[in-house]
Design brief:
- This protein is of the alpha+beta class.
- It is built from 9 helices and 4 strands, in the order βαβαββααααααα.
- β1, α1 and β2 form a beta-alpha-beta unit.
């Protein structure tokens, strides 16, 4: 059985949805760096960075980083699930999109959430922190436009429950990205909503965002 370390409303939702979509048996372990407790202590033993999501495989190996976990599930654990395309060209595009989200969108959200980690002057200055947040948020929204233009078609139609679509649906929930996409890329925005409402993953998203 897979063991997924994560928390409600976090990036672990994408991995949980992928496990459900692929029909892979798993156990959820509540853990988050901002919530002390037994789950966090256990997470620290398998992932010294204490980052979520972290996935322990049935054989005991541990994988962290959302994109890497989703790649493993789509390529190795459940290659016939539809998480990743079987054809080399579309599969390469999907892998590129997953890395784009991790390296660009996810990274920008880390700066928005913790600007003091990236600028020493921001440690005690809320004005500097807000300037960093504002500039990074604008950049993040530009990155989402680029993602929608380059990878959006892979998240629509039959691909709406793919690993790429699942990660995009989760990460776009943060920092005002959905509202921006609704205005600037409405077709892609509708695709995100369709992914949330897909029967195979609907319950996962409703559990993570019950009021959405």
């Amino acid at each position: 059985m897979y063991e997924l370390y994560g928390s409600q409303g976090s990036g672990s939702a994408a991995v949980e949805a992928a496990l459900c979509f692929a029909g892979l048996e798993h156990r959820l372990i509540e853990a988050a760096s901002w919530r002390p407790g037994p789950g966090l202590e256990e997470l620290g033993r398998v992932n010294p960075l204490r980052q979520i999501p972290t996935l322990r495989l049935p054989g005991g190996q541990v994988i962290s980083e959302s994109a890497a976990i989703l790649m493993h599930l789509g390529l190795d654990a459940a290659p016939d699930s539809g998480l990743l395309p079987r054809e080399p060209g579309p599969r390469a595009q999907a892998l590129s999109g997953l890395v784009f989200l991790a390296a660009n969108c996810y990274a920008a959200i880390g700066v928005i959430d913790y600007p003091q980690r990236w600028c020493a002057e921001a440690e005690q200055d809320e004005t500097v922190q807000e300037r960093i947040r504002r500039g990074t948020r604008a950049r993040l929204h530009q990155l989402w436009e680029l993602f929608a233009d380059q990878y959006g078609s892979a998240c629509l139609g039959p691909g709406r429950c793919s690993a790429l679509a699942l990660l995009a649906t989760v990460v776009s929930k943060w920092s005002g990205s959905r509202a921006h996409l609704q205005q600037q890329r409405p077709e892609f925005y509708a695709g995100l909503l369709a992914t949330e409402d897909a029967p195979a993953v609907r319950a996962v998203f409703q559990r993570h965002w019950p009021a959405a």
